[in-house]
Design goal:
It is a single chain. By secondary structure, the protein is of the alpha/beta class. The protein has a single domain, classed as CoaB-like (Rossmann fold, 3-Layer(aba) Sandwich). The strands form 3 sheets. An 8-stranded mixed sheet has the order 5-4-1-6-9-10-11-12, with helices on both faces. Strands 2-3 form a two-stranded antiparallel ribbon. A two-stranded antiparallel ribbon has the order 7-8. It contains 5 helices and 12 strands. The structure holds cytidine-5'-triphosphate and calcium ion. It comes from Streptomyces argenteolus.
Length: 228
C-alpha cells in the first residue's frame, strides 16, 4: 500500500541512521564481513526524509546510491562507524542502529598480504571485541529525550532473545526479525516485531522495507508526542 502524501511529523528532527555491514580487515585484500545489504537502513533514510527529518545516514559497505535529501557519511570498519555515529548523535533526536556491526575484529592487521607457505597449516586468526555502539549511544544519551532504536536478527527464541537484548542495550525500541530463507538479507521485504522498553509489541507483517521503516517512525513520532 502506498502511503501517498505523508505528514511531516519528523520536521525539525535530526535523525541518525546507520546502515550496511562493517568489514574488519585482516590484510590489504581480505576482511571479515557480514551479509547485511543496507536496504533496511536506506528505507529508513528515505522515509525519514519524506516525513520531514534532517537525516544523517552513516553507511558501511553498501554500494548503494546516496538517498536524495540525506547527508551520507561513509565508514568501513566498526571503529569508523562508531566514530561517525557518536559524532552525528551529539545533536540527534533519534539514533537508529540498522547496521550490522562486526562483534569482533582481527587482533592484528597485516600490512602486507598474508601468504601461504608450502607444507604449513594456516595460523589461527585471533580476534578482539569491537565496542557496542548501540549500548554506548543508549547509555550516554547525548541529548535528553533522545530516542535510540536498535535492530536484531535472531534465528531462535526470537522474542525472548529480543526482550533480553532490548534490556541489555538500554534502547527504547528494538526491531527484531527472524532470519530465514527469503527474509532479511538482500531482500526487498522484511517481517518484524518492534519491541518497546515500556513492554509494547508491534508486529509488522511481511512486506516492503519501507513499511517497516514507516512503522518505526510512527512509534518514534508517538514518543516525541509524549515528551514534547
Ligand atoms: N550493535 C552495535 N555495536 C556492536 C554490535 C551490535 O551497535 N558492536 C548494534 C546493532 O547495530 C544492532 C544491535 O546492536 O542495532 C543488535 O545487534 P546484534 O548483533 O543483534 O546484538 P549483539 O549484542 O551483538 O548480540 P549477538 O551476540 O546476538 O550478536
Ligand atoms: Ca552481533
Amino acid at each position: 500500500l502506498a502511503r501517498g502524501a505523508v505528514a511531516p511529523d519528523l520536521a525539525g528532527r535530526h535523525v541518525v541512521i546507520s546502515a550496511g555491514g562493517t568489514r574488519e580487515p585482516l590484510d590489504p585484500v581480505r576482511y571479515l564481513g557480514n551479509r547485511s545489504s543496507g536496504k533496511q537502513g536506506y528505507a529508513l533514510a528515505r522515509t525519514a526524509v519524506a516525513r520531514g527529518a534532517r537525516v544523517t545516514l552513516v553507511e558501511a559497505n553498501t554500494g548503494l546510491p546516496d538517498p536524495a535529501g540525506a547527508d551520507v557519511l561513509h565508514a568501513g570498519t566498526a571503529l569508523q562507524l562508531r566514530e561517525a555515529v557518536l559524532k552525528a548523535a551529539a545533536d540527534a533526536d533519534v539514533v537508529v542502529m540498522a547496521a550490522a556491526v562486526a562483534d569482533f575484529r582481527p587482533a592484528a592487521y597485516a600490512s602486507g598480504k598474508i601468504k601461504k607457505k608450502d607444507g604449513q597449516e594456516p595460523a589461527p586468526v585471533a580476534l578482539v571485541r569491537n565496542p557496542d555502539i548501540l549500548a554506548e549511544v543508549a547509555g550516554e544519551r547525548a541529548r535528553p529525550g533522545q530516542i535510540v532504536v536498535g535492530f536484531a536478527a535472531e534465528t531462535d527464541d526470537v522474542l525472548a532473545n529480543g526482550r533480553e537484548k532490548l534490556r541489555r542495550k538500554g534502547c527504547d525500541l528494538l526491531v527484531v526479525n527472524e532470519v530465514g530463507e527469503r527474509k532479511t538479507f538482500g531482500s526487498e521485504e522484511n517481517e518484524a516485531v518492534v519491541l518497546a522498553a515500556d513492554g509494547a509489541e508491534t508486529a509488522v507483517p511481511y512486506g516492503p522495507k519501507e513499511a517497516l521503516a514507516d512503522t518505526v517512525w510512527d512509534l518514534v513520532a508517538a514518543r516525541f508526542g509524549q515528551i514534547a
